[in-house]
From TrEMBL, chains A, B:
The keyword Methyltransferase applies. One of its GO terms (molecular function) is trimethylamine methyltransferase activity. Pfam families: MTTB. Residues 1-27 are annotated as: Disordered. Coiled coil: none annotated. Keywords: Methyltransferase, Transferase. It comes from the Bacteria. Residues 1-10 have a biased composition (Low complexity). Its EC number is 2.1.1.-. This is Methyltransferase. Signal peptide: none annotated.
Length: 520, 520
């Protein structure tokens, strides 16, 4: 019996309790972990495209779809769906008449709810909302003590735990790091199990093969109940487009599984500018829009109404070294622009993250990540993957950077509130009370409001120089190391019905027993 | 004879050359230093205040001026000016009837040119422009090798040199650090001389006493010619309001000197939220607007048409420790909001900077500074003081942070260009040429545009992990140290007419000889 099966807990309250004494004991000892509600923006979107730019880019994207077309590789069924829909299919090339893709996109919902096993953690994806999810995909991890090394399933579980403990993170994410010590064909089982048992936040499913996506659906049926999954979205999974203009059979196979099961997909071009798209903002936006239109349209051919998110993962390139670069102005312009285009499609938008190219959680990482996080908030992103923990161009999940970024996400929540001009916040009585030359610290308005007035970092240093110096003159990374240790030390598993935990474990064990290890 | 007098050089081209062989030798050996033109924004301003919020805040600011009023301390002449203008003066309290301050502000110019001794470095302040100037005021400096220590005149000169060598910095600034080894009453002479001889970018004058402001005017008359100074703005100086609602005699005395001489002042509340203003965004905006209206109006009473900039230096406070905090969301909201209010006054706006509370140029410094720099660009700031070098809440000028921030300023330039939808930048030919599954690196469009396509940091690391690791796994601070050394090593003085240099030195020596050292 594995760790998961040993857990005591209770099933999420939505569908009533089960389990006996173990569940009740777990409930009594559970640590209450505060998670902020997803961000509801009360600030405007920042829009860099004027009416003419939008017109040009949207027209060009239709031209790309109509004249150049897209490729659906290794996927005869997809070609047949497109043919039926009225596209011109030539080999694997699909040319889509003007307006058809956008028309097909219209059946996708503007917003949807992704359910968590703890309903208090459900997220609404779309509209004015912003849902924050951690880093996705790094094969390496780094911490101050151990340096950079291949990620393991233990690291994976640690990052799920850190995500669960992070107040400003609404989502447990997906491949928070690659558990390289587990066979490739079995990883998804251990990863999904970890999200399910170590966290009660919503999560993502596997996309590395259609049958692995199917495993994820079946595990969700155990966790949430088969009927519930048939009627509700419980996974949001990341489907990358193979830019330029190519949709490969494996990713589309996973999309088909999820769309048929009414589970959400992020349909996302993955673009290093200058390599997978032109070296211009307008050209890249054109291609990204064409890819998004084709991808979303295809999801609606599979199942009209299937929930999707329009994605844009776009970064620039260092033309000296060929390395992708992050937190750069061109990527910001594209992110802002694609936000406008996604809103005009009437769909939720995924982009941005705590992107950086730095090898260390140092000043470079701070500048680049803050640039990216700010653009994410202000471009109207609805689902921000990679919102914390990303290092070295996404090759590395950093323990210290995870908690630094996760802390900064609190600033986004506060910023999103906008300006409150209620009578209390106008503070005219305070200005009168204090008067010229006075001091606000002691006035009644300050006393009444100071606890919630200013966002406060829990990861940064605010101490006087002398105190900070006496305490060892610690930099942000050193402070973050201590915070990682504290959060992991304080971590307690959220309650889960032991019967469900056991069924999940049995499913994973049975599936694993049916396969031989594969590392591809 | 001092260093300045020994310099060879030539006077800026505008008013013809003078000087002989020494000047010609200097010209031959001078290093050409590239400085970017000030930013001309092709992107929109970000606006957080809706029509109702603007109406409420503007009405409340008038109520503050009318009912609470402002104090002009130790300044009978100012009180008399206000009385003549129609305000109600009671002791040192000045109550300004609704609308009067705003009406008086109307004579201030919407934009003005600040001249540099090298006319290629002139800056236009106002409109869609953004002029970037370095850190102002720190009594300490820090570098990786020497740690934190009191600043000296040698540090001051080094920072002026670094500013001169920084491509993205348009302005040499003012008190880039406090030369604490020079008597307080003589510092302004050495500081101004350093800006004049070690740089050819525009600079700021002293504001610590009216007679020191007068010295600055007279030194400018030597540098630019008396007639030129009478007709043109050659200094932009920082006049802080003693918030809440107090204008002290010394600062106003300096303002009076500059305004009479048609030199520009930044009239700027200096606010730590919760201490010098209410703990709410709307309340702080109300007070800042009231202070700005009163201060600008006063400048126009001194000399209608005198160039001014509306300032807002606003930061939040850590209610646990009382320390000011930087790069926080409340400060961003205030900065965005005050940008809107300043534009409605029709005046140039000063705010933001590379603000941070961190003691070190570490990740905290990076996040906080990037937050502040981005808000500065997007809030429509026209003059950004503290755009580089700021550390530890402004107590410290950091060598390493100076070059890190100065590098990031390049990203603001690129971002400000916005989205170009010219036919070339639409890149449709490239998308056609490459097609689905292709690669853009070699295509004609990429070849034609890659050199200018993406902004590239000169301070950050973009190397592959292995190369970076072999080269010592340097963090941003370590890389920045090397950059500081290189820039200072490459530095060459910009040419200056030796006769002018000598007259400046003589002026400084004569003025110093007339005073005994004072350290207050």
């Amino acid at each position: 019996m594995t760790e998961a099966a040993q857990m005591a807990g209770e099933r999420a309250g939505r569908r009533g309790r089960s389990g006996g004494g173990a569940a009740r004991r777990a409930e009594r000892t559970a640590v209450s972990v505060e998670t902020a509600r997803f961000i509801e923006r009360n600030i405007p979107d920042y829009e860099v495209l004027d009416a003419r730019a939008i017109e040009v880019i949207e027209a060009n994207a239709e031209t790309v779809l109509e004249e150049i077309g897209v490729v659906f590789s290794d996927n005869p069924e997809a070609l047949e769906r497109w043919r039926q829909a009225g596209a011109h299919v030539d080999g694997e090339r699909v040319r889509i008449p003007r307006g058809l893709a956008r028309k097909l996109c219209a059946t996708a919902p503007a917003t949807f709810t992704q359910h968590a096993r703890n309903p208090a953690r459900n997220v609404e994806i779309g509209g004015r909302n912003l849902v924050l999810a951690p880093v996705y995909g790094p094969p390496f991890v780094r911490d101050a003590e151990g340096g950079r090394r291949y990620a393991t399933i233990e690291d994976f579980r640690n990052f799920v735990k850190l995500g669960y403990m992070s107040k400003w993170l609404h989502h447990s994410g997906g491949t928070v790091c690659e558990p390289t010590d587990v066979a490739v064909n079995k990883r998804h089982l251990d990863m999904l199990l970890a999200h399910m048992v170590y966290s009660d936040k919503p999560f993502m499913g596997s996309v590395t093969a259609p049958e692995r996506a199917q495993d994820c659906v079946e595990m969700c049926e155990i966790l949430f109940g088969k009927e519930f999954v048939a009627e509700n979205t419980v996974m949001t999974s990341l489907i990358n487009i193979n830019s330029p203009l190519t949709f490969d059979g494996i990713m589309m196979g996973a999309l088909e599984v999820y769309a048929k099961a009414n589970q959400a997909c992020i349909i996302s071009p993955f673009i290093v500018g200058g390599a997978m798209a032109p070296v211009s903002v307008a050209g890249t936006l054109t291609q990204v829009l064409a890819e998004a239109l084709a991808g979303v349209a295809y999801s609606q051919l599979v199942r009209p109404g299937a929930p999707v998110i329009v994605g844009a993962f776009v970064t620039s390139i260092d033309m000296n070294s060929g390395a992708p670069t992050f937190g750069t102005p061109e990527a910001s312009l594209i992110t802002y622009g694609m936000g406008q285009l996604a809103r005009r499609m009437g769909l939720p938008y995924r982009s941005a993250g705590a992107f950086c190219g730095s090898k260390l959680p140092d000043a470079q990482a701070g500048y680049e990540s803050a640039n990216s996080l700010n653009m994410g908030l202000m471009s109207g992103v609805n689902f921000m993957l990679h919102a914390c923990g990303w290092l070295e161009g996404g090759l590395v999940a950093s323990y210290e950077k995870f908690v630094m970024d996760a802390d900064q996400l609190g600033a986004l929540h506060q910023m999103a509130k906008g300006v409150d001009v209620s009578e209390e916040m106008q503070a005219m009585d305070a200005i009168r009370e204090v008067g010229p030359g006075g001091h606000y610290l002691g006035c009644a308005h300050t006393q009444a409001n100071f606890k919630t007035a200013f966002w406060r970092s829990e990861a940064f240093d605010y101490k006087p120089f002398e105190t900070w110096d006496e305490e060892g003159a610690r930099d942000t990374q050193t402070l973050a190391s201590a915070r990682v240790a504290k959060l992991l030390g304080d971590y307690r598993q959220p309650p889960l019905d032991p019967e469900i935990a056991q069924r999940l474990t049995e499913y994973v064990e049975k599936r694993k027993a049916s396969m031989s290890d594969s590392f591809s």
